[in-house]
């Protein structure tokens, strides 16, 4: 599909483990389980997971059908053509309350569909236009409030405020070196916010895409030219992470 009117929000609608917030290592497997269950549903005839994207309670966005593909989740074909579908991975028992990270991730997924998938401005719940409890009362209340980012602000998690040199937060780990355009999380957002606060033109969206790589290389070159040598590779490794906070800017 070239475009839609917007995005509809869903939930799993089954029991989700209450201790899932302590186990992000379960999330990718849970996404594959949802995909497998959809593929096993012969009455629906789905050819893939029904959602365009899924978001876990840790704020990670998992690509489902992705951009420009008609969803199978909204109830019938006219509804599926009208809106994309994003699933917040909470349930109707166990984990039923969205975390702030999940709400930020849903916003990220919605903005991704708007920016790259031709989604219009409407943000609705599955129950809008179809008889279902989905996406559950907590997520539906958030949808009705306009699907705001927790704490306000366009970029979600904000940097420390100041733009001068300051102690870097702990480097979040090797996965920031994946150079994966689909890598997305709050640590990417934290780094982007810091670099944007310090004057580089960078969209703070939590996606480590081409722009982030390019700005990272510019920062590494600039640092190297100003007495703080860094490997210029477009990767936020531990040295680049530290320099992003601790290098004084002239
Ligand atoms: Zn639904
Ligand atoms: Zn997770």
What labels would you give this structure?
250 residues, alpha/beta, Lysozyme-like, Muramoyl-pentapeptide Carboxypeptidase, domain 1, 2 domains, five-stranded mixed sheet, two-stranded parallel ribbon, 7 helices, 7 strands, 12% strand, elongated, binds zinc ion
Describe the structure.
This protein is α/β, with parallel strands linked by helices and 250 residues long. It folds into two domains: 4-144, Peptidoglycan recognition protein-like (Lysozyme-like, 3-Layer(aba) Sandwich); 174-246, Orthogonal Bundle (Muramoyl-pentapeptide Carboxypeptidase, domain 1), CATH 1.10.101. The protein has seven helices and seven strands. Strands 4-3-5-1-7 form a five-stranded mixed β-sheet. The chain has a two-stranded parallel sheet with strand order 2-6. A hairpin with a 5-residue loop joins strand 3 (53-55) and strand 4. The termini are far apart. One zinc ion (ZN) binds at residues 10, 73, 126, 132, 134.
Poorly predicted spans = 153-160
Q: What's the helical proportion of residues? A: 25-40%
Largest sheet: 5 strands, mixed
Bound molecules: zinc ion
The CATH architecture of the largest domain: 3-Layer(aba) Sandwich
Q: Got a strand count?
A: 7
Specify the number of helices: 7
Fold blueprint:
Elements: E1 4-11, E2 15-16, H1 27-40, E3 53-55, E4 61-63, H2 77-82, E5 83-88, E6 93-94, H3 100-117, E7 119-125, H4 137-144, H5 186-197, H6 210-225, H7 238-246
Parallel strand pairs: 1-5, 1-7, 2-6, 3-5
Antiparallel strand pairs: 3-4
The protein binds zinc ion (2 copies).
